[in-house]
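Example complex used in Figure S2.
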Amino acid sequence: MALIVHKYGGTSMGSTERIRNVAKRVAKWYRAGHQMVVVPSAMSGETNRLLALAKELAPSRQTDALCRELDMLASTGEQVSVGLLAIALQAEGLEAVSYAGWQVPIRTNNAYTKARITSIDDRKVRADLSAGRVVIITGFQGLDEQGNITTLGRGGSDTSAVAVAAAMKADECLIYTDVDGVYTTDPRVVPEARRLHTVSFEEMLEMASLGSKVLQIRSVEFAGKYRVPLRVLSSFTPWDIDIEQEARSGTLITYEEDEKMEQAIVSGIAFNRDEAKISVLGVPDKPGIAYNIVGAVADANIEVDMIIQNLSKDGRTDFSFTVNRNDYARAMDLLKTKVLPALGTETLVGDTKICKVSIVGIGMRSHVGVASKMFRALSEEGINIQMISTSEIKTSVVIDEKYMELAVRALHRAFDLDQPPS
Ligand code: ASP
Ligand code: MG
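Predicted assembly (422 residues):
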């Protein structure tokens, strides 16, 4: 007997018909002798619908008071899901009980709309499991120290499921979703993209932060911290598929590098259009300049990603960095009105038509020439690289967004990702 956590995404919970299928799948696992905890998302589209209602009424300024109510509102989507799923499981002849986050309780800090889980009291859940019940817990929501309902940020049900699995030391956490695993890249861009049977936790972390939307990044961080056995798999296989086969399907997140002897050097290509580039030209080349620019931006709570400072000429240099596109206008405004005047320069150039394309792989640690191979593949397509950043297991470039798909395809080919690793 194992303790298993299942997480079902919004699409899997999208209709009563689909919820019935989820119930049948969970019942199959339960009848195979496992203790089952299930964490569903809201029905697909529901969180968007709720937040759109708020938008019709809300002032534009996001105050703490408003964010509290957004969480009160948005958390209801998951409450509907757990109730329906418990009803469906009971209809399957199982004993099932559902809990909202606050009933468990799942404790969080008080950062409304992006709260972090601080602790989970699993006593009630354990008692139910021992009594033979299937336990269903809302994804996405928690309770702060003052008793307010909080939510974990969009896609947060992944994190709820992983956190529950970590707290209960579950044998495995299975994330059922509308794709059948983690791919070498988005198959909508590269039809030859392959599903990875395993991916290391560190690669998954990079891919999640670089734009692959399969798992919420916090859930991957959580999984890594507590080494939660985690698998991403499809909820669209027939519910009565052989359980052994199902248990081996999808993509397993691994923690030991040597589990992956057939490791390819590059495991995946990630990309996103979420960033914009800002350049401050002709700033004095002296101590404190980077701090003046980036510090001011960070103080406004704007995250800076890639940074480049050029060689100086005549005591002046150019300084470029990227920010999230949503923060672009605010960052430009701040620089124009506050920072540039103090630096004695006026030239500010911005570009929102960029994208970031990255190659990711733990094999990069032990191989040289990976970045140069990337640059060659891009140059052969005539694609100009505007910025570069590297870490131990990834290399990212910023390029013109109109070449994004071409770049992703070229890199997928250059690193032989169309073929299974030999
Ligand atoms: N329902 C929430 C959302 O749409 C949480 C989740 O689905 O993971 O973001
Ligand atoms: Mg999701």
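DSSP finds 13 helices and 20 strands in the chain. The chain has a mean pLDDT of 93.
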